[in-house]
């Protein structure tokens, strides 16, 4: 009892008192709980916009505030906040007592015996730590420190995984993914209310959930943190597949997207870790990849299947089979061995997945392509390019870097995982020329509470350590070492132990990678909101060819189905034009009158053109080639070119990609 009173007294001494807000500073609460964590940042947070009206600030494009409520509720220990106070929020899971022996996921992911001091507040001897995957790293006061240090956008990805939940022995709730997503959304709004109460009422706190880009700009201009809700889960809307049979319908997708939108969700992943009824995933690597492949089999009845990659983009290598992971498989079942030269997932975007992509576009939502297989990613980018839709995000380094320019050319946004300062700076340098070319900022995805490691300390004896106190990137605030309870963290010796260490990590990047990397990060909020705002403003282009008269060099004869030229402009994605099985062949459409033309989209059936060109004409006799390729690979192609005036548009195929003819589901002709 005496010890408990002593620790409580120490916590009260080390926490900020309510009198700290007596000056009327808008950024300091008048009713902070006591005891609580210190923030250790002084000075007014920057407000307003630049002379050109741009917002400023950093973007954490990928975080999981409430994943302690995911995976059955006992995988991530501790809470983001508690109305009962910090001691209740920052305590370990009951099975971790007395020495961490039952912290199963710790030693599954790190080896060893998982033992640790389970006591959190106020001593924090062993957690949070940069290499602890199972302890709360997103306590609200630590998020406050990240905001005070210059962060202005936080994407809170609501996350869970039903299979991990079902396998993990400790849980206190069901494993239904959508139930967990709903709870995490509710708690996000509860956290907003909790912080508002510290500042005098509704709308007065610094933590602001936003549902459109204009609202986000207002929040950031006021110096506060714009919080965007996203979703990262393996089976959204129940869209898993079992033995390749989808377990959801288009109606489920529509209902699910509508529900998420109503909850305030504006970005999401369509697949994560396991192949589902919407898309194939980008594999995890090494032993973890094998373990997740086992989970894939237990969830879906199928292992990952690979093929030789068709372009420079690759999925991650799966790695060797793990005997330990295979113990969870039925007797006689083994993880397949994979050819090192066949690194790409055979699964891309399914028909239901394409329907979900179109549904997200209709709702002006942003799509996360990290965790999608390269085949699925390529198909998504094809769809977005055909529609000139900018809403594509890569938030934490799970996209092959060879996609970067396609993302930027669409108007999308890219963030890098929260690597150590050396690795982060090196990767930033590799894509620096593209950011300069497209005049965009950069982001980071911390993935805190996402079951991943974070930057390790470089050591107090490094040649260029973080020196405390230091100034924030805008120069207006001062950052000192962070203290919670009786524990003080030093980035040089503790690394990125929790989300409050983001300002320290950015200072370390400045020391290692230079001011240019930090400048790009400080432009991140503006670039993220540019992508979001452009998505909201997107208007579906008018297809000038729809319903117009089409002709062709030939049409395949079939006694049951018509493959006439008009089938490619009837607005029905299930019908198609098909030519005879020979070269060369052409298909053309009469737009009815001369129009400005800048883009043609071609949705190929399996019988595609490997070499073909787009020609235009004003009279149907004299033709001008405006675009061509000799490397067609089927799927959805977008031909963009300088604006021309044309009444007739022609596809002229000179080399078939298959032994069949040329076949097009739908052709679109657009003026913009």
UniProtKB/TrEMBL annotation:
SUPFAM superfamilies: Galactose-binding domain-like (SSF49785), Metallo-dependent hydrolases (SSF51556). Pfam families: F5_F8_type_C_2. Keywords: Signal. Residues 537-672 form the F5/8 type C domain. This is F5/8 type C domain-containing protein. Residues 550-564 have a biased composition (Polar residues). The lineage of its organism: Bacteria, Bacillati, Actinomycetota, Actinomycetes, Kitasatosporales. It comes from the Bacteria. The keyword Ribonucleoprotein does not apply. Residues 546-575 are annotated as: Disordered. The keyword Plastid does not apply. It comes from Streptomyces phaeolivaceus. Residues 1-21 form the signal peptide. InterPro entries: FA58C, Galactose-bd-like_sf, Metal_Hydrolase.
